[in-house]
Amino acid sequence: MFDLIKRIGTFFLDTIETVVVALAIFVVIYLFLVQPHQVKGSSMLPNFIDGEYILTDKISNRFKNYELGDVIVFKAPKDHEIDFIKRIIGLPGDVVKISAGKVYVNNTLLREKYLPVDFTTNPGMFLRNDSDIIVPPNEYVVLGDNRNHSSDSREWGFVKKEEIIGKAWFRYWPVSQVGFVPKIDYK
Q1: 43 assigned to active site
Q2: Is 176 labeled as catalytic in the residue annotation?
Q3: Can you list the domains of the chain with their CATH numbers?
Q4: What whole-number distance in Å separates Cα of residue 118 and Cα of residue 60?
Q5: Which residue from 52, 79, 142, 172 has the highest number of Cβ atoms inside 10 Å of its Cβ?
Q6: Catalytically annotated residue among 6, 40, 43, 75
Q7: What is the pLDDT of residues 144-177, one digit of tens each?
């Protein structure tokens, strides 16, 4: 009888130890490496759909800077309890302008191949038509892909680097869309 109790006790201790180690590994991964996020709303259509799930890479920005075209997740400027997902359009030091429905970065038309050909970008209260803005150090200009239905830098300005959670890295739901988030080439 004592042997049975000892085996049951050992089993429970082993199980608890396994669960604690698994939880510790999960917490380290969640806090420092990748974090799941759900796309909410239509601001990133047609490239990200409401209800999709992505993994956000939280570590790579410590070794290299964000790049033009990266899709990032960050704390919403007006409510830090909400996370936004948008595309980086302007890097620190860039000059960004909207003119005639098109986006220009450093006086060069941004060729946004991920948008429909005839798509126009309307200006906003912050990023006004034909007005150059210079992106400050450690800040970014971000726009949603669905510009007509996106709260973004055109209205509320820059995103500070410290507000960025990470870069959208991998889409894992729905199954039909599973894969890495593609790298954008503006050339």
Answers
A1: yes
A2: no
A3: 37-180 (2.10.109.10)
A4: 34
A5: 142
A6: 43
A7: 999 989 999 999 999 999 999 999 999 999 988 8
